[in-house]
Amino acid sequence: MANLSGFVKRIRDIMRNDAGINGDAQRIEQIAWMLFLKVYATKEEDWEFDEDDYESVIPEECRWENWAHDDRSGRTMTGDTLLDFVNNTLFPTLKNLPVDASTPIKKAIVQTTFADANNYMKDGVLLRQVINVIDELDLSDGEENHAFGEIYETILKELQSAGSAGEFYTPRAVTDFMAKMINPRVGESMADYACGTGGFLTSWLKELRKKVVTTEDMEKYSDSIYGIEKKQFPYMLCITNMLLHDIDVPRIYHDNTLLRDVLDYTEGDRADVILMNPPYGGSEKNDVKNHFPSDLASSETADLFMSVIMYRLKKNGRAAVILPDGFLFGTDNAKVNIKKKLLSEYNLHTVIRLPGSVFSPYTSITTNILFFDNTGRTERTWFYRLDMPEGYKHFSKTKPMKLEHFDPVVEWWNNRTEINIDGFDKAKCYSYDELTGELGFNLDRCGYPHEEEEILDPMDLIQRYEEHRASLNAEIDRVLADITAILGGKS
Predict the structure, then answer these.
(1) Angle between helices 142-158 and 232-244 (to 10 degrees)
(2) How far, in Å, are 181, 466, 478 from residue 299 at the CA level?
(3) Rounded to the nearest 5°, which phi and psi values hold at 147?
(4) b/e 6-33 (16+ beta carbons within 10 angstroms → b)
(5) How far apart are CA 121 and CA 134, in angstroms?
(6) Who wins on pLDDT, 282 or 480?
(7) What is the enclosing helix (H) or strand (E) of 351?
(8) 242 backbone dihedrals φ, ψ, rounded to 5°
């Protein structure tokens, strides 16, 4: 167990000497494919034990124990021989494994995981040293496997500071809180259509595990999750994450959710529960919009995912979704129409306003958690502002948000009352008529009193400015249309 504590540091120290590795993002990507193969090899040992006729999808010479494991015989590959094998045999073989629709998921994931993976290391001796550190892990030991699961979590956290890779990581306190409030039940299906490294999936599994009693429950537990991830690297991390959580058949797909017509979804495509933090701030190509009804065809990624979520939520299903402030106050046509659909066809019962630095250092854009279910029209919506905990000015990498910081919400959740502090609403309930009538679908309620000037990252500032400008333009267009109508249609 002792060797686990310094695991990441040991690997990082070796990699620092390799000319091919440039920065944390590449370092973590390098660790990721090796970890996947080590974890997969451990799983294959289990499958071989359980299944009499198990055959690996990986050719014999490319299986971990035949090239990576050092048997101390002195014949283990290292230096240029190892480098040549990895670059010219291992990678081409795994990238081109014969996979078709009939290949079982647990075998097909090897090919999809390696489809865009890279070996950045250029020194075969250093590569051998890194592989030896990874090979020391005894993942068949339950205790060590659990401890490594915790270490894997720290690797995922480090993505936050590894350039743009941070977008794939939602703080664990947030995913755990959302899974807790959604209250999983054995037998339900849960989906995340932009699952990144699998944070929501693991939080769901952790919460659901408490309710597993029988062997039948365990089968339902293993089969309860479904994920889609567009980018190769987080997809690889997610698959490894699921294998570490004893999901032997991870139904995680390397695909783009937005490239399917939302009107084509059938009952089999829907989930009982959806937990998501959709990518936001990005804009999709025009042809992506063609997969959505024209009134919902936004150019904002988060808006498009919001439509997907509504179309893919089962009758009586429940959802918890993180969305930026721009969704709440936005008045452009697509945003208003999405909110109109949400309020008139779904029950948006709670909106939790989150402090601005929850996703720091990746972004300082303020976000919210929307809780809704597919049980019919919204009658009333509660808004609750979660303030910074005492002693914190803002969250940071060294002082991240913790699950206990959500305690005030949890306490309020089952005994809701309106709260007003110093003339500002902290918790308040609005009726459907108020939200759709006089407030004009502006859901920006119980916001943060701005006592001090907020200094944003330049890109965040530009994004916020663009959101406000789009809202203002939409408002001007609406007023001009009203005036034109009053004047008898003459422009």
Answers:
(1) 160
(2) 31, 12, 19
(3) -60, -40
(4) ebbebbbebbeebebbeebbbbbbbbbb
(5) 15
(6) 480
(7) strand 347-353
(8) -70, -40
